[in-house]
Amino acid sequence: MKTEVIASFETPFLTRVELLRQSFLPEKKQVNTPRLAFITGLHGDELEGLYVGHRLLNFLEQIETNNPSSLLGEVHVYPAVNPPALNHASRLWPGHGTDMNRTMGLPKPKELTAQFSSKLIEDIKTHADIAVDFHASNLHLQELPQVRMIDEWSSSLLPLAMLTNTDLVWSHPMADLFAATLGYNLNKSKVRTLVIEAGICHRITPEYGDQVFAGIVHLMKETGILDQSVSVAGRMKNPLPIRANQVISVSAEKPGLFVSDCHLGEFVGEGQHIGNILDPVRGKVLEEIKAPASGLLFTLREHPITYAGSLLARVALEKEPPP
Prior knowledge:
By secondary structure, this protein is α/β, with parallel strands linked by helices. The chain contains six helices and 17 strands. It has two domains: 2-238, Zn peptidases (Aminopeptidase, 3-Layer(aba) Sandwich); 243-316, CATH 2.40.50.100. The chain is globular and about 65 Å long. The protein starts with a strand and ends in a 7-residue tail after the last strand. It holds the Pfam family AstE_AspA_cat. Keywords: Hydrolase, Metal-binding, Zinc.
C-alpha cells in the first residue's frame, strides 16, 4: 500500500489537515484493465463508508501480502476525504459551514473547501476509470444499500451497478443540486461513477457495510481488476433496477411520534400496516400508516419526531406502472 498526501492545509493553531490516497498497484500492469477509486467521508456525519473503507483496505493489504499476482488493476482508496467535518462528526465543513459535496467542479475555486474539493476530483480523474462514491442517509431515514444514478448516464452505469450486491439501483432525473456533486462531475469527466447510499448517519451498520464490501470485491473481479480466483463471502444479490416512477413515498399528515412495526427490506403488500403516528401528550393514535402499494420497503424513518409532510418510507415497485 502506497500512501500519498494529495492536499493539505494548516490550521490557525499550526496543525496540518491532510487528504490521503491509499493506492494498491499490480505487480504487472495489464493492458486495458480499468482502475478503481473508492471514496468515502465527503460528509463528516456519514460513518458507514468508513467501515467499508476499512474492510477494503484490510482486504487489499492481505491480497498484496499473500496473493499479489491476483491484483490485476490499480485500486485507489480515498478513506476520509473531509477530515475537518469527520473530526466534528458534522455533515458540513466546520467554520465555513460548507457542504463539500456541493463544491465540486467549480471554476477557479478560491474558498478553502472548494480548493480541497478541486484537488480531490482532479486526483480521482487522474487515477481512476471507475469510481464508487459511498454515502449514508441523513439523521432521519435509514436506507437499504442502493446505487443512485442520473438517467443521463444509466445506460453506461447500470451494468456496473448490477454487480455491486446492493438491494436496488435507482435511476432518476437530473436536478440542479447534483451539478456541484462529486458523482455528477466525475461522470461528466468520463469516470464512470456509482453513488452508493446505505444505512444512516452517525451509525455503522456492519450488515450493510459487509454487503457493499462484498459487492465491491465482486465488481473488481467482474471488471478484471481482481483475478476470478479471489473468493468473496456470501451469495451475490441481484439488485432491483427501478426508475423514478417506481418509487412511492409515504409522508406523515400529522405531527407526532412515528413508531414503525415493519422492517427495512421487507416486501410489503398494498394496505399493509407500516406504523403509527402517536400523540405523546394525549395518548392517542393520530394516524395509521399503510403501504400505498406492494413492493420493496427500501427507506424507513428512524427519527421518531415527525411533522406534517415528514418522509416516513419509500416503497419500490417491481415493475413500472402503466402510463
